[in-house]
Amino acid sequence: MIVAASVWTRVNGECPPLKNVRATIVEVNEMGFYLTEYFNEMNDAMKIVDETLDAICPFDSKTEELLKFALSIKARSAPCVRKHFKGAKKEGASDEEIAYVFALTMRESAGADDCWTHSVIKDCIEETGGSAGPDCDVETKTDCCGSEPEPATVETDASCCGGSC
């Protein structure tokens, strides 16, 4: 918000009304003003990355748009979700395919958040020598893939599924 307000002030010479700050953020993202103005080398580097990815993409255009749609959801980028939702539709994705990718993204995000949070809490309990409560066995946990609980170890804490997800 501060960056958007600064850009607004630079462009318009005044502080933005609060209701315009959100629109300004979208404008800054869409026109790339800030990076172009202050760090154009980043834009140039990203163009090279984009060109490289385009050249080696192993997916058809519909699948690529669905992947970008999922990543945009996880990144919480409203302009990107809109762009790749429309792109997936343009490339022939059905409403059912888009809904599935949406649901899958939300499920995998929830599982990852759950696993990560349990790992952090377990570390906190171990660091403080405390207890999570009378019904909590910190030596086992249920994994994000619905598998049977497995012993919590350094190897499995990095990924609740032992690296298989």
Write structural notes for this entry:
The protein is mostly helical and 165 residues long. It folds into 3 domains: 56 residues, no CATH class; 32 residues; 60 residues, no CATH class. Helices cover 69% and strands 2% of the residues. The chain contains 8 helices and 2 strands. The protein has a two-stranded antiparallel sheet with strand order 1-2. Strand 1 and strand 2 form a beta hairpin. The radius of gyration is 22 Å and the shape is extended. The two termini are 35 Å apart. The N terminus and C terminus are likely disordered.
Query: Could you tell me the mean pLDDT?
Result: 72
Question: How many runs of DSSP E, i.e. beta strands?
Answer: 2
In helices, the fraction of residues equals 55-70%
- Give the neighbour order of strands across the main sheet: 1-2
Terminal residue distance: 35 Å
Q: List the uncertain runs.
A: 1-12, 15-28, 134-138, 140-165
- Gyration radius (Cα, Å) is 22 Å
Largest sheet: 2 strands, antiparallel
The secondary-structure element order is HHHHHHHEEH
The number of helical elements comes to 8
Q: What would you call the shape?
A: extended
- Tally of separate domains: 3
Structural class estimated from helices and strands:
mainly alpha
Strand content: under 5%
Structural descriptors:
3 domains, mainly alpha, two-stranded antiparallel sheet, 165 residues, disordered N terminus, 69% helix, 2 strands, 2% strand, disordered C terminus, extended
In short:
The chain is mainly α and 165 residues long. The protein contains eight helices and two strands, in the order αααααααββα.
